[in-house]
Design brief:
Layout (H helix, E strand, L loop, with lengths): L2 H23 L3 H9 L3 H24 L9 H17 L2 H16 L3 H33 L8 H20 L1 H14 L6 H20 L4 H27 L7 H14 L12 H12 L4 H32 L4
Helix pairs in contact: 2-13, 3-4, 3-6, 3-10, 4-5, 4-13, 5-6, 6-7, 6-9, 6-10, 6-11, 7-8, 8-9, 10-11, 10-13, 11-12, 12-13
Length: 329
């Protein structure tokens, strides 16, 4: 299937899911426009600043996970991350993620196996810290006694804490997953073919790169950077959601709870363009649990998603323009 067809299908899926969400909540499009109309320059600038800081932190983490012999220039590498974020947001998942490896190699000379390892470890760290942040939010909300009728915050927080530990362990030994895949290919005899042998050899190289990415303290430093990355994400959602109409009493823990659930549902593999529809599902479920009406939750969720898309497109286009003008040494 061609890329253009896949993108068209993802746009159609996103449109269908969004229309279904609007119908289910009874929300009218003008109410989404009203939510966006509440956004002022004074409330938007902090959100945009947080978004830019997020890009810097993510670029720093990618660089930390590269081998010692791979040195990248900060400005081009930041542009690589901005361009990759745009591609990952609007293109089908496999194509979007692969652009990081391509851009990092062309603009900064990062070997493909090192780029793949940095990307994989970063994604595993994201999942681990997201689970940990979601867990902490559950415990904080339970301790606040703001929702006495809900008695499952603590059990959910405990389960998420276990998930976070397991994911972090997988991050520590992510090379084992690649080695298992390589061993399976060889056990099944696929490696006896020319294509199978090339695939097995490539996976072995990636396994070595994954092991190297976690060595010499790099994984620990990347994990430490992942904490402010997710603090910025949760703060971005809290600042923007309150500016778009969520009650001013919404705490950071509550915003973290709702946005964590939204991020998790956006991972549902339905190939929706820019995750429209899937993110809003989790946003409505999360904030609906906390007493926010479905129409208000959906209006703020769609508004936040629209602003996020504008940020990603603007920063992504600037990054692409910089990379087009940049000539690597």
């Amino acid at each position: 299937m061609s890329t253009s067809v896949r993108v068209a299908l993802s746009i159609a899926v996103a449109g269908g899911l969004t229309a279904l969400a609007l119908w289910w909540s009874g929300l009218e499009p003008r109410e989404v426009a009203d939510a966006l109309g509440r956004l002022t320059l004074a409330t938007w600038l902090p959100a945009f600043g947080l978004h830019f800081v997020l890009y810097v932190l993510r670029a720093w983490r990618f660089a930390l996970l590269l081998p010692k012999n791979v040195r990248v220039q900060p400005a081009p590498f930041l542009a690589v991350c901005g361009a990759h974020t745009l591609a990952a947001f609007v293109l089908p998942a496999k194509l979007g993620e692969a652009t990081f490896v391509v851009y990092a190699n062309r603009a900064c000379g990062v070997p493909a196996h090192a780029g793949i390892a940095s990307l994989v470890v970063s994604r595993l760290l994201d999942l681990a810290v997201l689970a940990a942040g979601f867990s902490i939010a559950c415990f904080v909300i339970a301790a606040s006694a703001a929702f006495p009728a809900i008695d499952w915050f603590v059990p959910l927080g405990g389960g998420l804490a276990v998930v976070a530990v397991v994911l972090f362990w997988l991050t520590l030994r992510s090379d084992l997953l690649a080695r298992f895949a390589s061993a399976t290919i060889r056990f099944l005899g696929i490696a006896r073919t020319a294509l199978g042998a090339r695939v097995a050899t490539r996976i072995d190289g990636i396994a070595g790169a994954l092991r190297e990415a976690g060595g010499e303290g790099r994984l620990l430093r990347a994990a430490l950077v992942s904490i402010p990355i997710w603090f910025v994400i949760f703060l971005f959602c809290a600042v923007l959601a309150r500016a778009l109409g969520l009650p001013a009493s919404t705490t950071l823990a509550e915003a973290t709870f709702g946005s964590s659930l939204a991020i998790l549902t956006s991972l549902i593999p339905v190939s929706a363009f820019a995750n429209f529809g899937t993110l809003e599902l989790g946003w409505v479920l999360g904030f609906g649990t906390l007493g926010v009406s479905h129409d208000l939750a959906l209006a703020t969720g769609l508004g936040l998603h629209a602003v996020q898309l504008v940020h990603i497109v603007a920063l992504g286009l600037i990054s692409h323009a910089f990379l087009a003008a940049h000539r690597p040494r």
